[in-house]
User: Fold these one by one.
Assistant:
Number 1:
Amino acid sequence: MRTYQKQLLSHPLFEGIKEESLSAMLACLGGYLKTYEKGEIIFLSEEPVKSVGIVIHGRIRMIKEYDNGDVSMLMHIQQGELLGETFACGSFLHSKVVFQAATSSKVLFLPFHKVIHTCNMTCGFHHRLIENMVRLISDKNVQLMEKMEATSRKSLRDKILTYLFNQAEKHGSNEFEIPLGRVELAEYLCADRSALTRELSHMREDGLIDFEKNRFRIVK
């Protein structure tokens, strides 16, 4: 755990936590580190989620599987982001989605009940930790709203443009790199991959965008 101490201190969840307090805090909370290979399942649908995860390294897919075999990719959880907090802090602790490692990943887990309840030691970091957790949960809700905004558009072109405009706003530039490959982007937009590839080509021909692999530029 000490290997990742500096990385953890820069994480928004630990904002305001002093370096000398971090080791004691993780011990108090019962934090533990787990490693996952690409494709390995972290939580299955309907599995109880009692801990909040912080992606220390790698990338995690949050996907929804349906009875007819269809799969919808809800979001990719990047390095430094939280996973499982929606279920761990709710009334129903069972996951409604599948969390799967998109790449080789390391995740730090913190039992949620220990995060939000002050311990007998009345550790000074607890109140700050709770404030940080609430802010991060709010940020995750914004990400889900962005996905809803994109997928609710009627045409595939509008779905793509909405996603790209959101990415441009995050990067503060009309030229940026997206974190998703074509298959993942198609899953995210609830679209067919071949149709997505064709539409991207048409949008480039129409002078709307330009791109090279995952590098995009909004022309107009």
Number 2:
Amino acid sequence: MGKIRNIKKPRLHSEGTTTLQVGFLALLLINGLLFYLLREVTLLPFYVVLIVTVVAYLIIVNFFRCPIRIFNGDSENTAVAAADGKVVVIEEVEENEYFRDRRIMVSIFMSVTNVHANWFPVEGFVKKVEHHNGNFHKAWLPKASTENERSTIVIETPAGQQVLVRQVAGAVARRIVTYAHAGEECFIDEHLGFIKFGSRVDVYLPLDSEILVKIGQTTVGNQTVVARLSGKA
């Protein structure tokens, strides 16, 4: 499949524009008011609050980074990490929402310090995109994959294998954004979506896939090779 890439310099993600603008105004207001009230008494509390609020704001800025990454390996029959984070689950499970059979689930948990853009883990054709309302259990709990608010994306590879990607909201994350659309081609260098403030991404792979990551391993979205697919439909 040929790729048409629009390469741009890394920037802040558009999903964070409002949050960052409101946060910056709040930072100015809080610290400006505190300086005004304490300027003739002692400025020590002002400096403490200033440091804390600036650090907190920089963490939020870090969270909304939007890196543009290019995978330099062979993308054929390759599944890459759909997100930055840590591998928390690798197990054979019954996937009852779409496949209704057994698959290998690889789950990556994203902390609030990770980049929260999500990438397509495989190349191919988007067969289905569906959003599901649900609860907001802690993202690392097993029931989060089936009970939490989530978006499901099904991709068929050029070899005819199907891979399911599930964006899962957590206890803090309250908004899932999905850019994938059914009927479109997708490439691993492209953003699949975005999840705000900590969550997880589950990828369901065919049972004959060769898993190349381990529990606890740190992943880099669109760079870490998670598995090799057999190439057999």
Number 3:
Amino acid sequence: MELVKGVRKTETLELEELLTGEMNGKRVKVSGAVHTVRDMGNVAFVILRKRGGILQCVCEKGVLVQIKGRGTAGLKDVKEEAAAEVAGIVTPSEKAPHGIEIRLEEIRILSEPAAPAPLPVSKWKMNTSLEAKLNYRPISLRNVRERAKFRLQEGLVRGFREFLYGEGFTEIHTPKIGAKSAEGGANLFRLEYFHHPAVLQQSPQFYKQMMVGVFERVFETAPVFRAEKHNTKRHLNEYTSLDFEMGYISGFEDLMAMETGYLQYTMKLLEKEYGRERKTLGIELPRTDEIPAVRFDEIKRLVSETYGRKIRSPYDLEPEEEVLISRYAKEKWDADFVFVTHYPSKKRPFYAMDDPEDPTYTLSFDLLFRGMEVTTGGQRIHDYHELLAKMEKRGMTAEGMEQYLSAFKYGMPPHGGLGIGLERLTMKLVGEDNIRETTLFPRDMSRLEP
């Protein structure tokens, strides 16, 4: 019998441990994927790919190479993408990545690829089509620049969680199969659920609101589904939404302030702990010290007058308008983000609270970032009778929403919330122009694999 007592310390070291400087001049073991091999004749460079970055290893003549199941071999037998464990002396080197290299004494190949990689993942830029990168997604993501995008995406989610925990929010996990959707409309994925009609949820909206009556402040990071027949660079049929809902607000401005706090916290986090990824991608973090907020009707007028673009849709923002609004915000206020408030009621869901001063508008907002909407939020109707009246006005029935409505029937505080599109936020942060570039495994009208 053995007793398991927790995480075991391994013999092999990680890049972060090597970069402390404490291991310089010492013999170490390191494992990783063979990123590339550069044979210069008398000396060769074996570049290992680690989770923290790439590590240069110097291989001189006489270095022992062992391949599992095959015995001793030569350097020429070491293939790219092989899993390896190396041993050698840590040596400072100004020319090496991160300023260190390992003078190899031994290479052990733990496993070998059965075929060469279909994409040049060891190249700084693969220079291949997006379609090819998506078709071979598990391989293309091994590229250092490709995976850096998703490390930064991790930072966006990490910041969301850490900041909201610090603000007293409780993390929840809501179902993605339901009887009725919060948003309604035709863009629903419908399915049969044990002989009952069901849908994939377009958002966790109903559940977030119900849970405000329990925890007051809640958040979730989870997938949402939209059966929209779009084939654009900004739409997905499944994406990750960063959602929060908070009770006892004095107005929707509290929500904008909370999101601004999240962005400030997260940009500091990316600056402090994700410098390697930022340097790899050459990105500049956006300003978040203050974010302008401007009314929907006002900014449409200002953009129309400033850039000579006729207003075509009085009830919504077209993609070109989002670009021009962000341009205006940058030129006028040097702002990377801009809140657009008081959206028309006609384009907001039934639960959006109307502006008491002008019910044609709502107490809601979008957040635009470098030319694209990345957040939708606002204050919700919390009074049971007002909610029923709004539903009746829109010709809606309560069928399938009885549980949701019961939360309001038995009392709910003033509340509101928002949803952030993670992939869009990442896309604009790293400067990509197609949302599929910042989605691990995209789902769109034509793609169900990998």
Number 4:
Amino acid sequence: MDLYTAVVLITAAMLAVAVIDIQSNRVIGAHMKRNSTITCILIALSAFFEWVSVMTNGAALTLIPVHKAAKLLEFCIAPLIGVMATASYSKIRRPRLIAVLSVCHMLFETIALPFGLVISIGEDNIYHRGPLYPLYILIFSLSVIFCVVSMVRSELRHYLRPSLVLSAILALLILGVGIQMVYSDVRVDYLCVAVCNYFLYNHRCKIILQLDGLTYLLNRRCFEKDLEKVTPPAVFLLMDINDFKGLNDTFGHAAGDYYLKEIAEMLRSVYGRSGTCYRYGGDEFCVILKKNTDRVKEFNAAMERKVRTRQAADGKFPGVSIGYARYDSRNLRIAEMLKNADEMMYQIKKENKKP
């Protein structure tokens, strides 16, 4: 057994472990399970067809059709890995457009094969890169960038800035593919892709565990841990839904859950670009504002306008009481700041109850 075959077997074994992990994971949903598994299968197929191509390269001339078919299938499948990884760990915008582009790419590879434009298998059954090979590399690279950008945009819904982990994973992938581009005999690209895919999967699972299952805001544990790291200047905001118990008792918990999700989306749209939003528990929400702290009153007014607009359209929509406190060089006790924000919130809540 040569070293390359061993690398392919290790890649396949790693992907098998990943699939077992994915299928046994009780945190992720059926959608992510299915798409993540398909992503692993696509990586395995690409690695297998590359292996077949290498094994048939320069072999008996009767294997030329097998060689061509293996290389074509590899080049058709490989760019789909980034697309499926995006569908697994993020959300594809305009999925029909992406599907059409993927089909167009496969048709292009199939039509280009007889002319040796992207890949060329000579009469001696030796593989050569065609003049349009850089176009294939560009398409593959764009699919990877599409995946990373989609995940960054997804993270920005929950965090003020994306995790450095995504940059590190992208750098690792560039390293693996780059090595193969420079040293064509060192085939570690799909091993690197398999490793990066598993890193992306684990990164996504970590994010899922940090989110509240209903509103998809960060959960209470994240809030408490982030408090330990926050530095001035900042603004702490505490929010509570008015008479949420009465809402649940009158219209049912399904209605309560619906309005919790609506209010969470409002929080994200108003405060998300300047701070981090959390569901503390029940009908309580928190925001740690790190940017534009001098605009807190402006943000609060925007939130109140959104609530009033929804109340005008839906008479059942609940009000929201907001309290806040500034955390700066003069006020360095976080517990005291939270207490002040809490007292302001409950004072406003009492005023809202007045007839």
